[in-house]
Amino acid sequence: MAELMLREAILQTLFAEMERDENVVVLGEDIVGGMGTEGGPEAIGGIWGTSAGLYDKFGGDRVIDTPISESAIIGAAGGLGLTGKRPVAEIMFADFLGVCMDQIWNQMAKFRYMFGGKTECPAVVRMIYGAGLNAAAQHSQAPHGILTSMPGLKVVMPSTPADAKGLLTTAIRDQDPVIFLEHKALYAEKGEVPEGEYTIPFGHARLAHAGEDVTIVAAGLMVKFATKAAQGLAEQGIGCDVIDLRTTSPLDEEAILDSVENTGRLVVVDESPPRCGLATDIVSLVTNKAYASLKAPPEMVTSPHTPVPFARELEKAYLPSPGKIADAVQRTLAWK
Amino acid sequence: MAELMLREAILQTLFAEMERDENVVVLGEDIVGGMGTEGGPEAIGGIWGTSAGLYDKFGGDRVIDTPISESAIIGAAGGLGLTGKRPVAEIMFADFLGVCMDQIWNQMAKFRYMFGGKTECPAVVRMIYGAGLNAAAQHSQAPHGILTSMPGLKVVMPSTPADAKGLLTTAIRDQDPVIFLEHKALYAEKGEVPEGEYTIPFGHARLAHAGEDVTIVAAGLMVKFATKAAQGLAEQGIGCDVIDLRTTSPLDEEAILDSVENTGRLVVVDESPPRCGLATDIVSLVTNKAYASLKAPPEMVTSPHTPVPFARELEKAYLPSPGKIADAVQRTLAWK
Amino acid sequence: MQISEDALKKAYRQMKTIRMFEERLHDEIMTGEIAGFTHLYAGQEAVAVGVCEHLDFNDTIASTHRGHGHCIAKGCDVKGMMLEIYGRADGICKGKGGSMHIADIEKGMLGANGIVGGGPPIVVGAALAAKLYGDGRLAVAFSGDGACNQGTTFEAMNLAVVTNAPAIFAFENNHYSEHTGVAYAVGSEDIAGRAESFGMKAWRVDGCDFFKVYETMGEVVDHVRAGKGPAAVEFDTERFFGHFEGDPQNYRGEGEIARLRKERDCITIFREHAAKNKLVSKKDLDAIDKEVSDLIDKSVEESRAAAPPKAEDVLTDVYIDYI
Amino acid sequence: MQISEDALKKAYRQMKTIRMFEERLHDEIMTGEIAGFTHLYAGQEAVAVGVCEHLDFNDTIASTHRGHGHCIAKGCDVKGMMLEIYGRADGICKGKGGSMHIADIEKGMLGANGIVGGGPPIVVGAALAAKLYGDGRLAVAFSGDGACNQGTTFEAMNLAVVTNAPAIFAFENNHYSEHTGVAYAVGSEDIAGRAESFGMKAWRVDGCDFFKVYETMGEVVDHVRAGKGPAAVEFDTERFFGHFEGDPQNYRGEGEIARLRKERDCITIFREHAAKNKLVSKKDLDAIDKEVSDLIDKSVEESRAAAPPKAEDVLTDVYIDYI
Ligand SMILES: Cc1ncc(C[n+]2csc(CCOP(=O)(O)OP(=O)(O)O)c2C)c(N)n1
Ligand SMILES: Cc1ncc(C[n+]2csc(CCOP(=O)(O)OP(=O)(O)O)c2C)c(N)n1
Ligand SMILES: [Mg+2]
Ligand SMILES: [Mg+2]
């Protein structure tokens, strides 16, 4: 085991998978950094530090720096995937989904179905998402709800460096299109990462914290906040299961339902606004399938129905937090 | 009152509002039909029959036929809205959201917030949506869930010709960006439409059918199916409220909660796939806010987690239907 | 340009198959048995065939909403296509895709596409893969004059130039996007010129003359296979039917279709050229007509009789594996 | 080209205000007090000012992520901008937008934009509105060399040509998109040529010389106001700082920034030209420097001391009315 930052775990995984399988190809804006400049390729190596060195090692045919053309990037990933390659495309900010959604939603996600099951498109789209860096309304969003709603996609949201490695490896080796969401506020998060081969199957949640009283469901950065809340509550004698979904599609229904059957109380934490999102998805899953176990109405802790604001004070008010999560846990315990 | 098809109600409303307010401008692909051809402008007048005659009456500066460039269409609507006009843009198939989402999601929906509340962008985006015409995976989708999730937008889904008129009039006069979703399988639907001035406020649901036993919530085409189911069930002595949401954002929470407080049972019908959509949204609203009234777990009748298939038999299996809705009502009544 | 008699016969058979497929569909759609939106390719056959006769199965193409011609030209099974358009279980996409989504990856046919401008970015990906395979293969994006206004098409052209990808952008200018004339919708009216402005070599050719198309494409394909970068071709071509079946076509000029059928029919032009230059005998061509006609008859017959998909099949083929 | 001494002083003041605003931000960001991503415009001032000095408040502009210069040139309140960048309640967007979303519709400034290529389609809408107002007003989209690879930009150019909209596409080619050189990312390396291929008139001009920018823009604006259709201008310009604050800039050539500061500084070039042609006295320009410096000092001071927004304000300004 080595202690790595999440961004390092991503970079190492890309290295390892590219080394292992020559069909793996990465592409994205400024992932090489310095193309067409005096400093030359690798002068920068990606603004997130998740691709530095790949070009030097694997060359420009497999490490493709692209112009600012997200539709072309994702479309190219689709075409690479259809013709025997394993593309890993990077979308620098998940907010840019707006300029490339067709190639995700109507193309790669649907190839297999539209073409009668005769096609495989093993493409991975890495998207850097989330609030917390005061990047404002167009550089801070968490569109996992939108992506999870799309049949044909798998959607992954790692919350630790180890999971980043295990899940990204699985994503690259998976035969279906996978959206891999990396939270920018988790990039510097450190953790032990298993060395060598390490895969984590999709659709298997992780129990990030264990307790008997309330089930908290979260993904990505929200797992960190939920765990913090659970730790604080534990000191007050309140036990929480924190279920880290790892993948929102497929969804580990069993893990959620098992926990709720035990606790009878549910708090869902989601970084997105409240309407038609992952929070409502989990709440309705539980009320449909574990209705009889519920002792209180499920609680949702989400961001408000607003864009992401810029100023520190506003963004703090916008995001779920350990405090807000703990409050929701208390509310559900206090019910009736 | 005149009996009109829904598409006629749309066309008449556009006529009336353009006549009433010279700032109303319409734009979209082939909405004039025949530009640059020997047949000339208005040779076709829009493939949906919702714009025929507008060009002849109001001229090319206010009735703007566009190339196949959805991002530019929506962006132009945003720019028109920011500079004092009331654009009504048409997106021929809602599925093309994929190629213009940025201008909806990151631009017009967010202008007001990002710019500190100092901006108005009274743009309407009409989108023709929905399955039922065997138009397959890329011409049949119902992306209202995705749009409803976006703060800054209002989302309208008329289910009758009268509502189409009343809601479109409101949409055009509204100061915020509005997404107006017209179901292609409702275009030929006939109904009485009030003459003259007629507006319906947003956020006020319509009771399409009344009953005491179960609350059915639906929007757009699904209202028709739900009402049909409710009529059949009424003959069996089962009474259903059918709540036609009319607008999914804002949402008439009160109408839903009042009904569920009375019936204690909820069936949500939604044409979209089941994950992170309008169905989960309504279910979680009700379980959060009317938990104590519930006598059974809420039921969702949605399309499956698949793209929309082509063949008649498959599309039929895909879509919710009166039969499937009635079954869900029976399930919720049979619970425990 | 050299082209063998056999190759000519094959090309003619392909063109004729497309033509008869489409003419027949036009009739069959009237019966109401065929569901959905169908866009017929008749009139443009010389383009699809003139391009694809230069390709082999390793080369890939991506098509448009008007995809039947490209599919047939790239070797998709004609009966499987007809079954698909009829929405049958044995259709090439099991009835899930229909006219607008026919694909056959094994044949290098990456899909018709219901999204205008959907194909070009995909083709850049296929071309980048082709570059990695390193065996000279290439990828072709078919687009209409209307599609050349969609941002995705431009992004794809630029990305192809930047990455020196072996991609060909084949623009079929049939003068209409739906009911709108190219004179209105394409700012410059010069599609090849746009492509050139992205830094690639571009050709212009009469798309109703197979021989010209084939000759030009020889140069284009040589250029691209040689690694000299992507290329574009603008074909001047004609659409014989409406935009989709049901289109009243009042935007057409008086007698326009009759004139096109008379003066701009690629099948007639082929036959005349072949006769004049004694390349293939009329008898041989007539025999091909008969063969093709039988094939289409049989395809329609079988499609009519074939079983529809089962309702439960709606759930399959979304993922390879899920959970 | 005639330009009065007063007009020149105003232009100089605008350029200098931008420069000092940016230089000062560069220092202030080091303190850690300013949050988020900030992209500085220093080096490109002659473009923003040379364009906007031809515009009045009815004309509109849309800007980019690198928006401070355009905002100041179009007349946005400098102190309000500084407050915004500091995330203060009294900022021009109440602290909700920050550096990347400054807008002031009343001044005709339709917004900076965090989405590359976000602005051009919006500008076409503003231009279509301008056409309806019928008083000769126009709309300008500022874009970078990188933005000219985004599909939305192309769609906007074509739509503007098709609708004969009074729009100007101002491409600031500063040779970099983030850390990538224009030689790599723009297939043709000829941005004006691309615009021409869409059927509009295009100009190329040195963007570091205010006098040349101003003169060229005179022609461009005349063309567009006269209803002769949209136009494009490619400005050869330079970015003095990194892509964003924090950029290590190892992609720059050895001594590149020093050279640019020496040879390509639009402020120096302005002063030299003004001196040589005796247009404005050094004394007057020095006085402006002083004024501007005071304004910036005061803006920073006040911004530092100003109150942040209240937490509950996160909920306001989403809609004008909701339910
Ligand atoms: C993104 C998108 N916008 C609009 C449409 C609707 N549409 C289908 S075909 C078509 C016209 C296409 O014209 P062209 O590219 O010239 O192809 P042609 O029909 O002439 O073969 C349009 C507007 C679509 N399918 N996709
Ligand atoms: C759609 C989109 N893609 C990528 C980015 C990230 N990004 C921000 S600025 C930039 C470079 C823009 O280059 P250019 O247009 O030349 O403008 P400059 O920074 O030189 O002013 C990139 C890639 C973005 N903001 N939006
Ligand atoms: Mg066409
Ligand atoms: Mg630049």
Draw up the topology in text:
The complex is a heterotetramer, with two copies of chain A (336 residues) and two copies of chain C (323 residues).
Chain A: E1 2-5, H1 6-20, E2 24-29, H2 54-58, E3 63-66, H3 70-82, E4 86-91, H4 101-108, H5 111-114, E5 124-129, H6 144-148, E6 154-156, H7 161-173, E7 178-183, E8 190-193, E9 206-209, E10 214-218, H8 221-235, E11 240-244, E12 247-249, H9 253-263, E13 266-270, H10 278-289, E14 299-302, H11 312-318, H12 322-334
Parallel strand pairs in A: 2-3, 2-4, 4-5, 5-7, 6-7, 10-11, 10-13, 13-14
Antiparallel strand pairs in A: 1-8, 6-12, 9-11
Helix pairs in contact in A: 1-7, 3-4, 8-12, 9-10
Chain C: H1 5-30, H2 45-52, E1 60-62, H3 68-73, H4 78-85, H5 119-133, E2 139-144, H6 151-162, E3 167-173, E4 176-177, E5 180-181, H7 182-185, H8 191-197, E6 201-206, H9 210-225, E7 231-236, H10 256-263, H11 266-276, H12 282-305
Parallel strand pairs in C: 1-2, 2-3, 3-7, 6-7
Antiparallel strand pairs in C: 4-5
Bound molecules: thiamine diphosphate (TPP) (2 copies) and magnesium ion (MG) (2 copies).
One magnesium ion binds at residues 144-146, 174, 176-177 of chain D.
